[in-house]
Specification:
The chain is α+β, with helices and mostly antiparallel strands. The chain is built from 14 helices and 30 strands. β29 and β30 form a beta hairpin. The protein is elongated, with a radius of gyration of 27 Å.
Length: 586
């Protein structure tokens, strides 16, 4: 190992005679702009060794990156070689989903002392939380840098590190994606003490991070690199480019979903990484935080969206039911993106921004994914299942799994929570997963039936009173008193299992969703739906065992007004309503 080879790797060719702050800052910036924060070894069959020679060969000679244990260890060696007074510290990362710091040390950082002043030097956090300059170790002082404002707070010998974010601008949206910038504006990053550590203190952690299935680094393939004006990040198949301070107090965030073939090319073009083994990209959803803080999803903002103000102390059925009902009465089931020139994507961050910040709705893969994330963050035992929807025109269940739903287990009992079916088939309460039991709710009587490990959902409706008899034979009316809804198994699913279906449903001419523009929302006494130009408002149990169903046909110019007044939706692009009658295949 030699320092000159390291300098060649990071393209540093200036003087290094003086171990001063200016030299440290320049070397540090060259390091973070040349060496990615990445965990790709874990996802291409390689073992990460925590000895200095292995780290040096990997980063300097093979031109790879590394995570904090590697990148900061290499930087520690380089600074020691240059005569800096440097030591290793250990940090505990903040976990937004649990609103707490980790119990065990899981991060390595460096402390450098220059002329009696202490500085924190951390090249191994990556993403939007990566500082660009050494930070003076002083409590309560705002330290503005290009990525944002960083700050340390000290309390009884423990130091807390946080960052103040700017607003973001995403080009796919015509407005910044939050109108409440004060929410989630300050992001906690980690805590640490000033107790000196040795690299061997992290050997057990290094092995744990590579083998534990619960570790976020196992669930996401990550590569992030700072640039001269922002950063690049590749998490799974999602490539994000950030430009800091693109406009006053606003960062530009550009997000692209790559194909498998594009991942390898992007690693080479954007990160200068050529892997020796085949990478298997992975990005298990619902695991905040994300490396690139494009959304800083938080529960307070979600609950402000749904109007929920109840207790979160207990993960019980009562709380689940209350949260669920607020969701279905605030978040429409809708596919309007398809009919106003937008693409529906399943990235959780996109779903969150669309539903929570842009106050839109979504279909099952969006609504239930978001609901599942919320429930997991609250500590519920929640998992995804996949269903095959019944097609009344073909009198058969679909052959493709197109419906995502949530299973929640409370005190040993399983419940189905589905906030993504809409209209009259939308359950209003979690349903106990038990076969053959009638479960009466305001919309009607629901029932599961199990046969050979396959579960079938059906609903019994009431009689219907339709004042406008012109709609008595409308295909928007349910004709059968007992209606099959969908079937499913208890095999756990991930959002990845629905990617191809998501594309198919919004592009195939045989899809129900390309044939009809749909927006439906549950109310306190029924539901309303806008399908094409037809507005339906249903009141459940208007009279004994009878639902009131009212139809109105709208003019083109009325559609936008109704969306705003009845569904609280304001579209950014022009909607082209559609309601093709007749059959569909899926």
């Amino acid at each position: 190992m030699n320092i000159q080879e390291y300098f060649t790797r990071i393209s540093y060719n200036k003087s290094h005679k003086d171990a001063d702050l200016q030299t440290l800052t320049v070397i540090f910036q060259h390091h973070i702009q040349a060496i990615p924060f990445e965990n790709l070894s874990m996802h291409c069959g390689e073992t990460i060794e925590l000895d200095l020679q292995s780290t040096y060969n990997k980063i300097v000679r093979k031109k790879r990156g590394g995570w904090c244990l590697e990148s900061n260890h290499l930087l520690f060696w380089a600074l020691q070689e240059l005569g800096y007074d440097v030591c290793i510290l250990g940090g505990n990362s903040y976990k937004p989903a649990e609103r707490a710091y980790t119990a065990e040390i899981n991060h390595i950082l460096l402390k450098v002392v220059i002329k009696g002043n202490s500085y924190i030097v951390d090249a191994g956090f990556g993403g939007a939380y990566q500082a660009w300059q050494p930070l003076m170790l002083i409590s309560g002082k705002d330290q503005p840098q290009i990525p944002g404002i960083f700050r340390f707070m000290e309390d009884n010998g423990t130091w807390y590190f946080e960052k103040v974010k700017r607003k973001h601008y995403i080009p796919e949206q015509s407005v910044p994606f939050t109108d409440t910038p004060e929410l989630g504006n300050i992001r906690k990053i980690y805590t640490f003490t000033l107790e000196p550590r040795h690299i061997n203190d992290f050997q057990e952690l290094n092995m744990y991070l590579q083998v534990s299935p619960e570790n976020i680094l196992q669930k996401k393939s990550i590569c992030s690199l700072q640039t001269t004006e922002g950063l690049y990040a590749l998490v799974g198949w999602t490539f994000t480019k950030v430009k800091y301070n693109y406009m006053e107090d606003m960062d530009l965030v550009e997000i692209t979903t790559l194909t498998d073939e594009e991942v390898e090319k992007t690693l080479k073009d954007k990160f200068n990484i050529v892997l020796e083994n085949k990478l298997v990209p992975v990005n298990v959803r619902g695991l905040p935080p994300n490396l690139v803080d494009t959304s800083d999803m938080n529960l307070e903002e979600y609950f402000a969206r749904t109007g929920y103000k109840g207790s979160l102390e207990k993960q019980d059925l009562e709380t689940l039911t209350d949260i669920f009902q607020h969701h279905i009465r605030a978040v429409p089931f809708e596919n309007l993106s398809i009919h106003c020139g937008e693409k529906i994507t399943l990235e959780l961050e996109h779903v969150y921004n669309k539903i929570v910040r842009r106050k839109r709705g979504g279909w099952c893969m969006e609504n239930n994914q978001l609901l599942g994330w919320v429930l997991k963050c609250l500590g519920y035992d929640a998992s995804f299942l996949g269903a095959y929807v019944f097609n009344p025109h073909q009198n058969a269940y679909a052959t493709i799994m197109t419906h995502l739903l949530v299973k929640v287990v409370i005190d040993g009992k399983a419940y189905i929570v589905d906030g993504g079916f809409g209209v009259s088939y939308q359950m209003w309460q979690p349903m106990e997963l038990v076969s053959g039991k009638d479960q009466p709710q305001a919309p009607g009587v629901f029932r599961f039936t199990e046969k050979n490990a396959i579960w079938y959902l059906e609903k019994m409706r009431r009689k219907q009173y339709i004042p406008n008899q012109n709609f008595s034979n409308s295909d928007l009316l349910e004709k059968k008193e007992c209606r099959k809804v969908y079937m499913f198994s208890l095999e756990p699913r991930t959002v990845e299992d629905f990617r191809s279906q998501c594309t198919y449903l919004q592009t195939s001419p045989d899809s129900l969703f390309t044939k009809k523009s749909i927006c439906t929302l549950q109310t306190t006494d029924g539901f309303r739906a806008l399908i094409g130009w037809t507005l339906t408002e249903t009141t459940y149990n208007y009279k004994e065992n009878m639902d009131l169903v009212e139809f109105v046909t709208l003019e083109d110019e009325e559609v936008e007004k109704i969306l705003k007044e009845k569904f609280n939706i304001t579209l950014e692009r022009k909607l082209v309503p559609i309601n093709v009658k007749g059959s569909y295949t899926i």
